[in-house]
Amino acid sequence: MSPLPFQRGKHIKYIQDLDSKATKQTYEYWLLEHLRLNGLYWGIMALDTMNALDALPQDEVLQFVVDCYDKEKGGFAPFPGHDAHMLTTLSGLQILFIYRRLDLIEGEKRDKIIDFVMQQRCADGSFKGDAFGEIDTRFVFAAVYILKMLGRLTHEVAEGATEFIMRCQNFDGGFGLLPGSESHAAQVYTSLGTLAICKNLDRIDSKTPSWLSERQVLPSGGFNGRPEKLPDACYSWWVLLSLEMLQKSHWINFELLEKFILECQDLDDGGFGDRPDNQTDVYHTCFAICGLSLMYSDKYGLKPVDPVYCMPTEITKLLPDN
Q1: How far apart are CA 191 and CA 163, in angstroms?
Q2: Could you report the per-residue pLDDT of 177-230, keeping only the tens digit for each?
Q3: What are phi and psi of 216, to 5 degrees?
Q4: Which candidate, 19, 238, 250, 269, has a CA 20 to 30 Å from the CA of 13?
Q5: Which residues are CB-contacts of 240 (< 8 A; sequence separation ≥ 6)?
């Protein structure tokens, strides 16, 4: 049976409507203030992958990002007036990079962002998310990504991050958020992404792609994040791109995964949910579309996406070689 059609126009409108006046009147909109800059990146990334970056007003987007800059701490906050965090700092910079406007943080802002990142570095090579001290492989990935983007990733930082990441690997080939934590597909991505940016991906053996390929759930064809869990559209990205980094994406069934992703669409209003017939959100919309791009960019008129940096490859070619 042929997969459902890709509802490009409805997905674009869905993302546009996320910031409409009607949406801003809802209780849920304000409950998610702490994710606003991340959400903007997910929407921008989905639109750019669909060749529709102009669907949102560029000046307003860039002004919001600049307003999220934390003048005191140096990074980007999720919303103006909030505290800076490693993850939102990465999202803010990714948006600026996609629009090719890193010039908006030149000079003192750029230096303070680098200082903010380095202040979170720990003696074991890991990074905290912010001053509250939580450590996670996501923050390590975000830190080396930010430093790479700004041309300040040193050998010392790269080697320290690599050693910490390798301590997070488990006997099954997966990675946890900390040494000894349960293997999880999203943590595998952040771990492999860190190793790729630090040019140490050769530290990975065959157990990791084997664990990743076992995440495809039959008969649905979708991926789960851990053994014995339901499939979820966002893992179409986390698992597939990890296999792509390891040049083992041919180990899974593309046709079944494509069918699962397209069944997660809202055919009436656009957007993607985690599973068929579930509520849509911008997070799953972004990573479902990026997953389709990794498999069939030409078929769906999507831009090729870089599996390490989760930005269009036409943009990541401009990253500094450090």
Answers
A1: 11
A2: 999 999 999 999 999 999 999 999 999 999 999 999 999 999 999 999 999 999
A3: -75, 120
A4: 238
A5: 223, 249, 252, 257, 291, 294, 295, 307
d(CA 225, CA 236): 10
How far apart are the C-alpha atoms of 140 and 162, rounded to whole Å? 9
Q: How far apart are CA 304 and CA 306, in angstroms?
A: 7
Structure tokens at 97: 């990079």
Query: Mean of the per-residue pLDDT values for the chain?
Result: 95
DSSP one-letter string for 22-42: TGGGSHHHHHTGGGHHHHHHH
Residue 147 half-sphere exposure toward CB, CA atoms < 13 A: 26
The DSSP-derived string for 206-268 is THHHHHHHTTB-TTT--B-SSTT----TTHHHHHHHHHHHTT-GGGS-HHHHHHHHHHTB-TT
Of 123, 220, 126, 205, which Cα lies nearest the Cα of 164?
126
Mean pLDDT along residues 135-141: 98
Quick: pLDDT tens for 11-49. Answer: 999 999 987 655 555 546 555 677 899 999 999 999 999
Q: For helices 185-197 and 155-167, give the axis angle rounded to 10 degrees.
A: 150
Say how far apart CA 296 and CA 290 lie, in whole Å: 10
Quick check: 1 pLDDT over 90?
no
Amino acid identity of 182? E
Tokens standing for residue 207: 């157990």
Provide mean pLDDT across the span 91-103. 98
The CA angle 186-187-193, to the nearest 5 degrees, is 95
Q: How far is CA 198 from CA 1, 98, 112, 147, 269, in A?
A: 43, 22, 22, 11, 41
